[in-house]
Amino acid sequence: MVIAAAVVIILAVLSAFVWPGWALNKGADAGNTTTQTGDKKQTAKAEPTTPSIKATALPDDATELLKAMPDSVLNYARTKAEASATWSAASPLEEYTLTYAVGTDTNDITLISAQWSTADSAKTQYDALVAAQTGDESASGNVKVSGNVTGAYVVKTDASDSKKSVAIWQNDTVVFQATGSTDAIDRFYQQFPM
After folding, report:
1. Of 110, 144, 116, whose CA–CA distance to 128 is shortest?
2. Staple partner for 155: which of 22, 33, 73, 139, CB 3.0–4.6 Å?
3. What is the number of structural domains in the chain?
4. Which domain holds residue 158?
5. What's the superkingdom here (predicted)?
């Protein structure tokens, strides 16, 4: 009997190395990430991926560009969408300012979106916006659609508020500028579908 128990224990220990993870309790802290350093233990909740509020409906006469704006991005729902003239000096065909929110004003993201008749005109506006942002750059790269480069993006710290960031990206004839808290912008622009 003692030998049988010893064999079972040895097999259990050996199988833990052959089939790692079988003995871990994966359901106990689902959605939490735990980090332990020295005597300190920190638990951080995973960020939500669906909104807790409903998106505001678009106007009946919404253009194709405005209709292309998602109702939500992760847990941010569109709460406002209106025509704007922030970039009117660059002569876009159409321009909108949208607000995406999680239900509290402190985490709102303001998104300006505009479309030009050519990718070159959009690139000129993108370049002007990037040059106007004097904060530290935290990310940049190319926008790709189906493996083809259709534009570029850059994320910079907001020079007027170090707790905020500005993400600017061009996708063919459309330019976007998202402004909000650094954590919110880092999540938002990467998941924005355009």
Report:
1. 116
2. 139
3. 1
4. 64-191
5. Bacteria
The pLDDT value recorded for residue 131 is: 97
User: Position 88: which residue type?
Assistant: S
Q: What is the pLDDT of residue 36?
A: 40
Q: Chain-centre distance of CA 150, in angstroms? A: 19
Considering the domain boundaries, does residue 19 fall inside one? Answer: no
Number of neighbours of residue 45 by Cβ within 10 angstroms: 8
What percentage of the chain exceeds 90 in pLDDT? 69
CA distance 38 to 161: 34
Task: For residue 162, give the CATH number of its domain.
Answer: 3.40.1000
165, 140 Cβ separation under 8 angstroms: no
User: In terms of pTM, does the model score above 0.70?
Assistant: yes
35-39, 94-98, 126-130, 151-155: segment of lowest average pLDDT: 35-39
Whether the CB-CB separation of 188 and 99 falls below 8 Å is answered with: no
Distance between CA atoms of residues 166 and 186, nearest Å = 9
